[in-house]
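Q: Got a minute? One more chain.
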Amino acid sequence: MSGVPAWSMRVYTGDGAFGVQHYNAAGSISRITGFRRYDGRLFHDEVIDYFYPDQENPYDQSESTAHVTVYVKPNDTSKVISTNVEPGKETVEEYRGVPIDSYWAERPVFGEWEKLADPNYGDAAPQEPGSQEARDRAVEMFSRLRYFREQGSPLDQLKVGDLPDGAGVVVVHQVRGGGSLFVAPDGSAMFAASAVSPDKALRAFLDGKRTDPSHFAA
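A: Always. Here it is, folded:
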């Protein structure tokens, strides 16, 4: 589909909040990000990721196969609600000690919306793709995932590989039902459940799909 915008933004004049819709190449809404006012500043407090049957056809949000909602609060806590990542199931996870310094933002000058339109707002500084540091960081991020910690799985079950064209690295949990974590050079990442095929997961990652950083809170 041609002419698909990367994003669109809504400004709520009543409370000064911002909402941004991000689109994939087919025109489906892939991510919604929200910013609310706290003590006169903006705080990036909401992310909703949508997953669809494929990346080639346009879908309405109601046609998504799964969606993950993340709420982050300025008190260093967050809540992650995953719906239909496994068919018919909804999970709720809560985290404390979430690093939030990079989630704050100043209200932009009218017309200068690009910073708030960044789908990965608040992510860490870039690392050289394929470097040992990037690989080690990716493994460390995977080890923080709740399901991995609760299983008590050893790190030697994780296999790390480079993504094509310097797109980052991927960590694969080599057990039945294990997922994959795609990590970009800028430190942003996307977790894919085992039910998602590797090629679809890679396409979604390259298309800009990301998992909220609060999933990797220590």
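A: DSSP finds three helices and twelve strands in the chain.
Q: Perfect, thanks.
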